[in-house]
Amino acid sequence: MSDIQLVEAPPGVEGAGFFATSLDKAIGLARSNSLWPLPFATSCCGIEFMATMASHYDLSRFGAERLSFSPRQADLLMVMGTIAKKMGPVLRQVYLQMAEPRWVIAVGACASSGGIFDTYSVLQGIDEIIPVDVYVPGCPPRPEAIIDGFMGIQKLVQTESLRRRSTPEYQKLLASYGIQ
Fold first, then answer.
1. What residues does the NADH:ubiquinone oxidoreductase-like 20kDa subunit domain cover (predicted)?
2. Which residues are known binding-site members for [4Fe-4S] cluster?
3. What is the spatial distance between Cα 171 and Cα 35, in angstroms, rounded to a whole number?
4. Which residues fall in the annotated binding site?
């Protein structure tokens, strides 16, 4: 917030002053406080997410009032719980249907690393099929941890350059997942 400054208006311009900042910072601030999460919950982490949205913890105070259950209207994918390998293509399709810019949070041990389910049928972390921005540890994580992960996404969104998604590094990352 210290990058935004109130500057005195030049002579002949009406008003007390105007704000001077870069477009990147203004858009980042607006985006970070108006994220629309799409919850992809499959097990116990989903219950903790429900508690996070309830009145005691109230994730809506961070600008995530509107949960979107349509990938085309969401910009934050929150994957919670065990993801079976058969569900992997569905999760990937949901991710691809989201508009850019999009961010991903892996909530809990199962979404992050497969958790206690080291079996042939469970995906050992969603980062095998889609890029993940923030990992929230726990089995299941407490609502405070989910809020901390959400705040981590907010910080990432606020400081992300508008040009980051067109950089060669980002395009190489997407290509490593087979995403064009």
1. 44-151
2. 44-45, 110, 139
3. 23
4. 44-45, 110, 139
